[in-house]
From TrEMBL:
The keyword Transferase applies. One of its GO terms (molecular function) is metal ion binding. Signal peptide: none annotated. Pfam families: PFK (PF00365). Residues 61-152 form the Phosphofructokinase domain. The keyword Metal-binding applies. Keywords: Allosteric enzyme, Kinase, Magnesium, Metal-binding, Transferase. InterPro entries: PFKA, Phosphofructokinase_dom, PKF_sf. The lineage of its organism: Eukaryota, Viridiplantae, Streptophyta, Embryophyta, Tracheophyta. This is Phosphofructokinase domain-containing protein.
Length: 175
């Protein structure tokens, strides 16, 4: 089932001619191609969709940071929390502390706009991170047990081994 995106009711987006990304919008992998070359690889364009799959009240989101530190990681956390609250009306956002292992050790923080208000001024990661292995089954079980239906995973890794079960924000800037 899908629902109308809350951005449709936002005054801030009322003046924007094309607020939503169409499912047909694509980004080409190679920007410059030769005249007679094949079509090539394309990716779905990121951005808000006209229909969403959860009502504001149904959303229980979490944010986890994994891998190494990189500049701006706290800003990303802050903007996800503020975007979910201010643009979509989502109140239930958890911060998973200590990387993937935070899922099964149940180290969490309730993230509100007040909690993340000035974290972008701090170094490191507000949520803490960890490197190394993880137990995917335990993580998925924990996500289900907590009723989490949106996972924002910030990964910083030179190896770029991404756990593909969740959408992620990635960075290759190692500090």
């Amino acid at each position: 089932m899908s629902y109308t995106n809350p951005l449709k009711r936002s005054q801030a987006y009322a003046i924007v001619k094309k607020t939503f990304v169409s499912p047909e919008d694509m980004v080409a992998k190679d920007i410059i191609v030769q005249k007679d070359s094949p079509r090539g690889t394309h990716f779905r364009c990121a951005g808000p969709r006209e229909k969403v799959f959860f009502t504001t009240e149904e959303v229980r989101a979490c944010i986890v940071t994994c891998g190494g530190l990189c500049p701006g990681i706290n800003t990303v956390i802050r903007e996800i929390v503020c975007g979910l609250k201010n643009m979509y009306g989502v109140d239930d956002v958890l911060g998973i502390q200590g990387g993937y292992s935070g899922f099964y050790s149940k180290n969490t923080l309730n993230l509100t706009t007040k909690v993340v208000n000035d974290i972008h001024k701090r170094g490191g990661t507000f949520l803490q991170t960890s490197r190394g292995g993880h137990d995917t089954k335990k993580i998925v079980d924990n996500i289900q047990d907590r009723g989490i239906n949106q996972v924002f995973c910030y990964l910083s890794s030179k190896k770029k081994k991404i756990w593909s079960a969740v959408p992620s924000v990635t960075s290759n800037l190692e500090v």
